[in-house]
C-alpha cells in the first residue's frame, strides 16, 4: 500500500493555532503576523496566505473605527509598544489598549456570526 498524505493537516494546524472566531486566536495571529507572513514566502505556505486573507476580510467586515485600525497597525504591524503608539496617536496607553481589545472583539464577533450562519 502507498503512503497517505494529508494535504489539509497544515491548514488544520493553523486553524487550531489561530482560530479567527475567538479573541485568543486573533490576538495570537496578530502577535505572530510577521512570522505567518514570512512563511508564505520562505516555505511556500499557501495556507498561511489563506489565513491572512481571512483575517483581512474579517477586519474589513468588522467595520473597525479609524482609531482601532490605527492602533492595530501601530502595535502589530509596525511593532510599536503601546506606550509609543499612544504617544504617536496622542492618547493614553490605556486608550490604545482599549482600541486593540475592542477591535479584536469585533473581529471575533464577525467570525462567530459566520460560524452560526
TrEMBL record:
It comes from the Bacteria. This is RNA polymerase subunit sigma-28. One of its GO terms (molecular function) is DNA-binding transcription factor activity. GO terms for biological process: DNA-templated transcription initiation. It comes from Heliobacterium mobile (Heliobacillus mobilis). Residues 63-107 form the RNA polymerase sigma-70 region domain. Pfam families: Sigma70_r4.
Amino acid at each position: 500500500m502507498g503512503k497517505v498524505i494529508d494535504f489539509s493537516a497544515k491548514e488544520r494546524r493553523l486553524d487550531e493555532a489561530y482560530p479567527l472566531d475567538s479573541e485568543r486566536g486573533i490576538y495570537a495571529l496578530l502577535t505572530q503576523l510577521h512570522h505567518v507572513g514570512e512563511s508564505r514566502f520562505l516555505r511556500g505556505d499557501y495556507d498561511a496566505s489563506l489565513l491572512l486573507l481571512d483575517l483581512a476580510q474579517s477586519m474589513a467586515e468588522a467595520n473597525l473605527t479609524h482609531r482601532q485600525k490605527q492602533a492595530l497597525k501601530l502595535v502589530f504591524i509596525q511593532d510599536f509598544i503601546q506606550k509609543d503608539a499612544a504617544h504617536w496617536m496622542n492618547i493614553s496607553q490605556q486608550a490604545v489598549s482599549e482600541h486593540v481589545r475592542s477591535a479584536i472583539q469585533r473581529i471575533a464577533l464577525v467570525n462567530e456570526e459566520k460560524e452560526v450562519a
